[in-house]
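hey can u check if this looks right to u? its 339 residues, i copy pasted from the old doc so theres a chance i mangled smth
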Amino acid sequence: MLSIRNLRPLTPVHFAHRPSPSEGRGYLIPGTLFDVEPTPQFFVTSFYRFLPLVTERMVELRSKVTSFMQGSDMLGLVLFASEGVNGTVAGSQSNVSSFRELISSELGVRDISFKNSTCGFMPFHRLSVEIRDEIVGMKRTDLVPDSTANNHLTPIEWHAMLASPEPKILIDTRNEFETTVGKFRGAIDSGMKRFSDWAQFLDQAELPKEIPIMIYCTGGIRCEKAILEMQARGHENVVQLRDGILGYLEEFPDGFYDGECFVFDDRVAVDNHLQPSAKFGICPRCGLTSDDQCECAVCSRPYFVCTSCKESWEPVCTKPCRDLWLRHGADASRHQPRA
């Protein structure tokens, strides 16, 4: 009888696309590829906290966090700046839990809101712990929240306000390539290419000050600065969504948010149940999101290409496949390197 102990692990394969639940690490039975080991479950946590950090402390924190993540088989991105910390990391459930405890303990605060989800594949390619000028790229180091409470609404309060017939203005503070994936029903798309365009958007929007304004982003961090810019311009009747879209979907998966939520990792987006998107992918030419799935003419793997690139990009999934296509054309599939 065949025993699990007689099976040797299959060498992991690097896929040009995000693996489906059936892809990944399995066991090799002579003459057969048979997945008997379930797809590993990775736990993902996103967090931020504004608090003052001096350079020496940031260097110390970078060293400790890097060492912990390296020893715990965790990947992701953590940013430190004089204004605080911001990050998203992934690993096993126990290691992510220990990581959350490490961050809270090292920073000496217990009110960090960690937004948690799961993923059937590792959504990051590397570990990066960096010191930067800002933990969110607004190019306004002078705008730093000095309180954890600045007109925040909980997801329940936010949902109730959206359901109310009272007049309100709803604004998405994310970039344009994010809002194409999904946004709150009736929200104004600011059309920004980058978050540092927020002031320019406000200059052009001419928003009324007598009507309540609701702003939101992915996890809450951008609104912490966006609301300060608005308040400096005399907008006092502004509220922000605590924990952002991710926090809202955790409590209201079938609420007022339409579509999916873009995230900055290999998941591309998460659906209304915070699971990796099965609908969207990244265009290999421009790096933006797309829901137009095609089959690579070289390796036959599925890939996504956006509308603006489809006419100018060869029918291939990656740049290596593109090189083969440019050299060999329709015969490129016959020239793939052998596994």
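Residues 1-38 have pLDDT under 50 and may be disordered.
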